[in-house]
Structure formats: C-alpha cells, structure tokens
Input
Amino acid sequence: MQPIRKALFATAIAAGFIANAQAAATIQTLDITWYKAFHYTQVRRRRESRLRSMT
Output
C-alpha cells in the first residue's frame, strides 16, 4: 500500500508542475500577443501620421 501512496503522491506533484508550466506558457503567449498588437498599432499610427504630414 505504501508504494501506491508514494506513486499517487508523485503523480499529483508532477501534474501540479505540468499545470503550472502550461499556465505560465499561456500567460506568456497572451502577453506577447498583447505586446505585438500594441506595437503594430503604434507603428501603423506613426506611419499614417508621416504620410499625412508629407501631403
């Protein structure tokens, strides 16, 4: 019975680590996506502003 408890405990710990790693990866992906969207919006606005000032 003791080996089964140890195995279940180790499995639960591993599952927790995997869940945390996946959550962190998801958060990083969302942060990068938000940054890229913001960055490209700013670049587009600057480009449009320069084009307007040329005309």
Q: What stands out?
A: DSSP finds one helix and no strands in the chain.
